[in-house]
Design brief:
The structure is a homodimer. By secondary structure, the first copy, chain A, is α/β, with parallel strands linked by helices. The first copy, chain A, is about 35% helix and about 25% strand. Chain A contains eleven helices and 14 strands. In chain A, the strands form three sheets. In chain A, strands 6-7-3-4-5-8 form a six-stranded antiparallel beta sheet, with helices on both faces. In chain A, helix 5 (about 195-205) links the parallel strand 9 and strand 10 (about 210-215). The longest helix of chain A is centred in the first third of the chain and has 15 residues, at about 60-75. In chain A, about 55% of the residues are buried. The mean pLDDT of chain A is about 95. Chains A and B meet through helix 7, helix 9 and strand 14 of A and helix 7, helix 9 and strand 14 of B.
Chain lengths: ~350, ~350
């Protein structure tokens, strides 16, 4: 029997919901023709979810562990009901349905790139190896992937923490590359250029043919981190929440931008991103702090004919593209390794 | 002296803010080189703003009028501090700076297409002709347009209420036309096809070359309104908040869509719009009820390679395009006239 590609056949309640919106999923280990079962080795809890649990329990790791077990047991997925967020998992492919389109084989070591909030999950070891004090959760159990799930094989040549950190933000450089290619020799501005997704976007933009790359960072310390990497032609220290200051700084550095990419999770960057962008240009918002109405009404109020894109974390081939950037660009790799070392 | 094109020179506090974000604007009637002063005849308050004021004052029109006067006097603009919304105005051009790029001449009758939340405004008649009971506010006073403001000349051949209703939503059909032209013979789905912006989008899509247009409406009564107009090749009665139902209904009617346009102000339509759209397709969200995170995380969770666009209300030529659709398409005009008659 073939499943629904987006997994609605695994939804127990409310019926008709998508797995992410569902209260409870079916974790039957028997897979449908287009499903894959994965033996889980590790969960990476979403940072917001782990923080909420740790704060609620005042740092009591045993209580955090008990609540994670309770959530997974009740919901059939690791979907924090307070934060609404999940995380990702690492495991080994255990069984592949003959109709699965994911291209996986038994024994492949993979990370899931869709959220734990929509992934059927059963824990079988009571999380006995986890102290409840870190986002990284050693675990034994299994998870189910649907026909349209996304999983990436873990590379052999990169340390796992580095590979996971790269895959966590791999949608941004892939979408950046696609939009850079739509322009001839564009000027690309990356707001938050010293961050993980920002540095990957800078590298992707240059490789895709950007004529000039500008990075915007909030203070001098970030600029000093980014400048030696050479990822940006110029690094601008500017508060991206100040639209006029951002517009003027970008204009003075060779702008306006043909493509502006917002990679900082700070509210209030919509107006500046719009104003820094040329007529006919594009703004891609990857920040989850983006306000839809601020973007829509802001562009209208500024009479700005710019295309505004909701940053979609899924682009075919995104994991391979991002991993390749980290392999080949020492600047990006250095920034990632430094951020991993800083915790 | 030339102003800043987006009007920051008129911001009194906080300094450096854009006019929309400002607490208070400068209403000095003396214009800069690139500004235009308009003699105001009527304000059209945003529906949400008027409703909030009417409810607050329990239907006491005099109290509503007093509060509108107080807001305009304190802020130098009609920017409801509770709802954050404004409205538009109708007036006659009184003075045009020699460097104004808006193409207006003294005596032109115009409507502003940028929000009152960013338009310097002074009221000079104490709104004496207004009873405080309607969104339409007869007024005497003046307003200032900046270099990048948007104003449209009122057409002579259409009744003013019809022209204003069309101009209020004119960004949607213009952006629809642009994106339809990016595909060859696309299938276009309009969610909320019987509404004002939805019907204009259907007409614009067909004129721009859509192979097949599908309208989604929430109940049979809306379908019966829309079907006789012939604006859609097929009208689907479906709850757009039910992603699987919407996907299946669109698929059965000739989908998936190359372009899906969301025109209903109802939360929770993101997943359905994404699922109804083909790989490589585009979703344009015009609904102010759109959740940025629901769209971004929804597409990622569904492994949907679709381009998601924040509906920008400004596209050059948008008012002329929409007015022309109403002039030439009896179906659209009939729907608008019926909605205006229903109040």
């Amino acid at each position: 029997m073939t499943g629904d590609p987006v997994g609605t056949h695994r939804v127990l309640e409310p019926l008709g919901a998508l797995p992410q919106a569902a209260e409870r999923l079916d974790t039957d280990p028997a897979i449908r023709d287009d499903e894959v079962r994965v033996r889980v080795q590790r969960l990476n809890l979403d940072a917001a979810s782990f923080r909420q649990l740790a704060e609620k329990h005042g740092g009591d790791g045993a209580a955090v562990r008990a609540e994670v077990l309770e959530i997974v047991s009740n919901r059939g997925k690791m979907h924090n009901p307070v934060t609404g967020s999940g995380g990702m998992l690492v495991g080994t492919v255990e069984e592949v349905g003959e109709g699965s389109p994911l291209g996986l084989a038994v024994g492949d070591r993979i990370a899931t790139l869709v959220s734990l909030t929509l992934t059927p999950l059963a824990i079988e070891d009571d999380l006995a190896s986890w102290d409840g004090l870190t986002e990284q959760v050693p675990a034994d159990g299994y998870a189910i992937l649907f026909g349209r799930s996304i999983a990436a094989k873990l590379p052999d040549d990169l340390p796992m923490p580095l590979a996971l950190a790269v895959m966590d933000v791999c949608g941004a450089p892939a979408l950046t590359e696609r939009h850079v290619r739509r322009y001839d020799d564009p000027v690309v501005v990356v707001i938050g250029g010293a961050g993980k997704s920002g540095s990957l976007c800078l590298a992707a933009a240059r490789r895709a043919g950007a004529r000039r790359t500008l990075a915007v960072v909030p203070h001098r310390a970030e600029a000093e981190l980014l400048e030696p990497t050479g990822l940006a032609d110029q690094v601008l220290v500017c508060d991206a929440r100040d639209p006029v200051a951002l517009r003027d700084a970008v204009a003075a550095a060779g702008g306006p931008a043909d493509l502006t990419i917002v990679c900082v999770d700070v509210p209030g960057c919509e107006g500046g991103a719009i104003l820094a962008t040329a007529v006919g240009g594009t703004v891609i918002f990857f920040s989850m702090a983006t306000s839809f109405t601020a973007a829509a009404l802001g562009a209208e109020g500024l009479a700005a004919d710019v295309t505004m894109i909701v940053g979609n974390g899924y682009v075919p081939g995104h994991a391979d593209l991002a991993l390749d950037l980290v392999r080949t660009d020492a600047g990006v790799r250095g920034l990632f390794e430094r951020r991993l070392a800083d915790g």
